[in-house]
Amino acid sequence: MPALERHAATGEIVWIGRTPDRSATLRSEALTSVALTFDGMVGEDHGDATRPSCGRVTALYPRGTEIRNTRQVSIVAEEDLNAIAAEMGIDMLDPADIGASIVVRGIPDFSFLTPSSRLQVPSGATLTVDMENRPCHLPAAPIDQAHPGLGKRFKAAAKGRRGITAWVERPGAIAVGDTLALFVPVQRAWQA
Length: 192
Known about the structure:
By secondary structure, the chain is mostly beta strands. It is built from 3 helices and 13 strands, in the order βββββββαβββααβββ.
């Protein structure tokens, strides 16, 4: 039996963006296509093979410890963006305002994809799921620029809908309109 099994779900890339300098802004710039390398998305500030550890792993390492970068790409479902916008009381949430790398359509329960699942496009470029991307306060400022005073609503509205983070397992090109094939690990859920 294979360690990965093709799941029935496929999706489509409907938006691509990159944040060239997150110290200047979290806001990402829209692209129609981009190359993925082992260091992540070309021109993306979240790229590189390693990164300084953050608050998500302080139980393991002091903040700033050099670790493997499994958060090279932030992917969110269009369906979840629409639900977040509705809960925030706005018509549309621009993925650029939350620093998204990729927006997909058509894969259900996207924010809860099993870690180590793979997303592959026709070029062969493959992203490996790290984990759910839990919402934070950083998108509040870019959202406030488009929707004054509403950025503070993002974190609560995005709970369970913020998408996933991933890293590049196989380099290649991705483009808006590409089909994503989902492969999930064949394993039972961990039991304590």
